[in-house]
TrEMBL record:
Pfam family, one: Bactofilin
Cross-referenced InterPro entries: BacA/B
Protein family membership: Belongs to the bactofilin family.
Protein name, UniProt field: Cytoplasmic protein
Superkingdom assignment: Bacteria
Organism expressing this protein natively: Anaerobacillus alkaliphilus
């Protein structure tokens, strides 16, 4: 079966440029951008212009009005980026709002993140909330929480543990698993969960296992439709298993 393939893209971080030292703001302060070894924004810091550095960390509330390129980035608190963000390892412990595109090697979201445009990288781990205004293209994606992706979620491997409502316009990958999340993790209290469900227009993959998913079309080689699913059309090539309690409008075996 012909599958949609994502582009292979590399995440470029620091280029060889003149480093002018470290940038540190403690308390309230603002400064121009530049190329640094380390950036530390502690308190209420604002940077006007592009920033390039090896190590980027914010603690408190910060705003960067420009593009950020870093080998490593950590957000503790609340940060707003007016521009694109390109990192190697990116850890979000609080909240991050990115008015642009986000590229990374590994992204861990343990709070809330909002990206107005596309998200791309190698490994994505979400233990909170992710909102993306464009496509999300990664090698591996692991969700324990909630997400809203206005475009395509595309990865070789996708594992979703539902806590709250999640949405993607389309999902494509080799192996796709969607299950109801465990209540023992305490994430349901964080999201004030009323229901746990994934809503998506189209899911396409090689091996697909779904629970509590509402979709118009599910298409793949081997498909398992489990508890809480409401699917308009299932198209499968090799094997289809459907839970008796699931609602499937129509199923077709493809040649």
């Amino acid at each position: 079966m012909e599958m949609r393939k994502k582009e292979t893209r590399e995440v470029n971080t620091m280029e060889t440029k003149k480093v002018i030292g470290d940038l540190v703001i403690n308390g309230n302060g603002s400064t121009a951008g530049g190329t640094f070894a380390k950036v530390r924004l502690n308190g209420n810091g604002k940077v006007h212009g592009d920033v390039e550095c090896e190590d980027f960390e914010t603690n408190g509330s910060s705003k960067i009005e420009g593009n950020v390129t870093a080998t490593k980035a950590v957000i503790n608190g609340s940060s707003k980026f007016v521009g694109d963000v390109t990192t190697g390892n990116f850890l979000i412990n609080g909240s991050a709002a990115i008015d642009g595109e986000l590229a990374f090697e590994k992204l861990e979201v343990k709070g809330a993140s909002k990206v107005t445009k596309g998200v791309r990288g190698e490994k994505l781990v979400v233990e909170g909330l992710l909102k993306a205004g464009g496509d999300c293209e990664v090698e591996e994606a692991f969700f324990q929480g909630s997400f809203t992706i206005d475009g395509l979620l595309n990865a070789d491997k996708i594992e979703v543990s539902l806590h709250g409502r999640s949405y993607a316009k389309e999902i494509g990958g080799e192996t796709i698993s969607v299950r109801k999340g465990s209540t023992t993790l305490g994430l349901d209290k964080l999201f004030k969960v009323l229901s746990r469900e994934l809503t998506v227009d189209v899911i396409e993959g090689d091996v697909i296992e779904l629970e509590y998913t509402k979709a118009k079309v599910v298409r793949g080689n081997t498909i398992k439709i489990g508890l809480g699913c409401d699917i308009d059309l299932v198209e499968y090539k090799d094997q289809l298993q459907t839970n008796k309690s699931a609602n499937v409008g129509e199923s077709r075996k493809m040649d």
